[in-house]
Amino acid sequence: MTVAVLVTASDGLAQFSPAQLYPGFFELQNPGRLDAMVFSGGYISDQYGVVQQGFQLEQSLTRYVGVFGRMTGYELFVGSNFGSPLSPDGSHSARFNFGRAQGGFDFMLYPGTRLYISGGKDFADSNADVIEGDFSSWLFLHSLHPVNFSFSSIHNYENRVTSTEIDVQALVLSRKNYMMTAGAGGAMHNGGIVGNASGQGGPDFGLYYRPWQIGLSVQAGYGSSRQYGEITMYKAFNFLE
């Protein structure tokens, strides 16, 4: 589906080289750009809960490619007699504490469309190797209510679980200093200790305050872990070099 969107009217695009489609693709960006983000959030359900916090640094290389590193700390609370898809080793325990270090590349595939590919390693109560892909695209950019489609998929090589989050949100209100989004999203887990696929979903809402570059996202719904709620907060910083 992604490839089909990027090569619409492929007969007309076939005659052009990558250099014509992406001018200056191999030219280093000058001035360069360093982006930083700190984030924190929590998830609670009838079965388990997660608290996470971390930061991400990204350095531009060209107008279309950047490198990034991400460090995240997790506190995982698992209810008795429940094998959480997030559990590092699949055992039943009251609490896990572990960190995750990741690094990879950021690709601007098209204006408003980005793809992050990364690999990483857990430490402390988890020793897993992980690989992750994050995709985000804004559609109908020239309309009053653009729509954002995003997904994030991560595979944990220790418990052999693949977790995928999908989200669709529309810009419902935009003012000079803030904007609000609303939509629906969910997550799916399959493989490894989970066995048969399980998942959850529900409505979500977002708020972004432009002057401070700070955002808030909340979601609630129902799924394999019954009722759940999730909140994420983040703050961005941008620097020209």
In short:
The protein contains 3 helices and 12 strands. By secondary structure, it is mainly beta.
Summarize the topology.
Blueprint: H1 2-6, H2 10-13, H3 18-21, E1 33-45, E2 48-60, E3 65-78, E4 95-110, E5 113-124, E6 129-139, E7 147-156, E8 161-174, E9 178-191, E10 195-209, E11 214-223, E12 226-240
Antiparallel strand pairs: 1-2, 1-12, 2-3, 3-4, 4-5, 5-6, 6-7, 7-8, 8-9, 9-10, 10-11, 11-12
Largest sheet, described in full?
12 strands, antiparallel, barrel
Total number of helices: 3
Query: What portion of the residues fall into strands of 2 or more residues?
Result: over 45%
* Molecular shape: globular
Per CATH, what is the topology?
A: Lipocalin
Q: Overall mean pLDDT score?
A: 84
| Number of β-strand runs | 12
* Gyration radius over CA: 19 Å
Terminus-to-terminus distance? 36 Å
What is the fourth-level CATH superfamily?
A: Outer membrane protein
CATH architecture: Beta Barrel
Total domain count: 1
Q: State the share of residues found in helices, binned by percent.
A: under 10%
Structural class: mainly beta
The H-and-E topology, N to C, reads as HHHEEEEEEEEEEEE
Low-confidence segments = 1-17
Task: Please list the strands of the largest sheet in the order they lie side by side.
Answer: 1-2-3-4-5-6-7-8-9-10-11-12
CATH C-level class is Mainly Beta
